[in-house]
Amino acid sequence: MLTRRYQARDIQTALDLVKKDLGPDAIIFSINKVNDSNFLETTEVVAGKDYPSEKIDEASSLIKLKEDLEFIKSIFIQFLSNCEENIKTNKDLFNIYSRFVAYGIDESWISKFIKKIEYKKKALISTILSHLKDSIKVIDLCSQKHSKIWAFIGPTGVGKTTTIAKLATRFALEGKKLAVAAAGSFRIGTIEQLKGYTDIIGMSFECVSKPEFLKKFIENHKNKDFILIDTPGGNPNDLIYLNQLKEILMAHPSIEKHLVLSATTKEKDLSRIYSQFTIFPIKSYVFTKIDETQEYSGIFNQLIKTHIPVSWIGIGQRVPQDIEKASKAKIA
């Protein structure tokens, strides 16, 4: 990786220099105030750029293809293996079971639930839908009993930065005082996006690269109504990335971790991402891109299996209106 330092009179000028030199995919490692050779305060940005290999790992592609084919092959076997015997032998029950499985509801859950309750076809369907709704948990993070220092974690591309921009603008319009931090190494576009919104609504913004800097930022803004912390996206299978993220978020005990996931993500991948991010105590889910799919079974199954509540749902790209507090009515 190529790494360089840039100094300018302000953050925007320094970011412009980075973009001109390294391009729009530059990674920002830190932004600090320093004194130049004339002892005048300037902004120093440390940035770098990856030059990835263009080689295609054909072996990995073949392995992935084989795994996908094996998964498809096992679907029918799994479908029947999770089905209770009394359901297999009852046409009406099997039709109901198949209907919910076709919607994507977890086979073992629906099979066990049908077995537990008395069979009446119409009542059964209504009861299952009601029980699904009751199984979902939601949480209001704006209530006084919850911490107001929120870190948004999750893989690349799920909308963490956009979620923060929506919440920051929404809270500012409500008259709340808040501060925003970017904790870690970010692409230059992310820094410019956050800085653009925070400048418009007149709130504090800093890019912090180390735990001690984040701790100082939180202490400096402890009287704010909200402190929102953006984190860099990464591969959830990359343990180095996860441990670096964990290290910086251990800076303060009051930081709540909220896992941001896209509603368009496949159920198998949702489970895998959640599993990797369990190195953090996850306070809630934030589901984004709800408007981009009509298939919500992966979300339902994730909520049923993990018992973690949903706090916010993203329903579009508009800032700030396309984010809503989660409710059972909206999710179910």
UniProtKB/TrEMBL annotation:
Residues 147-332 form the SRP54-type proteins GTP-binding domain. Residues 146-284 form the AAA+ ATPase domain. GO terms for cellular component: plasma membrane. One of its GO terms (biological process) is SRP-dependent cotranslational protein targeting to membrane. Its main location: membrane. Keywords: Bacterial flagellum biogenesis, Bacterial flagellum protein export, Cell membrane, GTP-binding, Membrane, Nucleotide-binding, Protein transport, Transport. It comes from the Bacteria. Gene3D superfamilies: Flagellar FlhF biosynthesis protein, N domain (1.20.120.1380), P-loop containing nucleotide triphosphate hydrolases (3.40.50.300). Belongs to the GTP-binding SRP family. PANTHER family: FLAGELLAR BIOSYNTHESIS PROTEIN FLHF, SIGNAL RECOGNITION PARTICLE RECEPTOR SUBUNIT ALPHA. This is Flagellar biosynthesis protein FlhF.
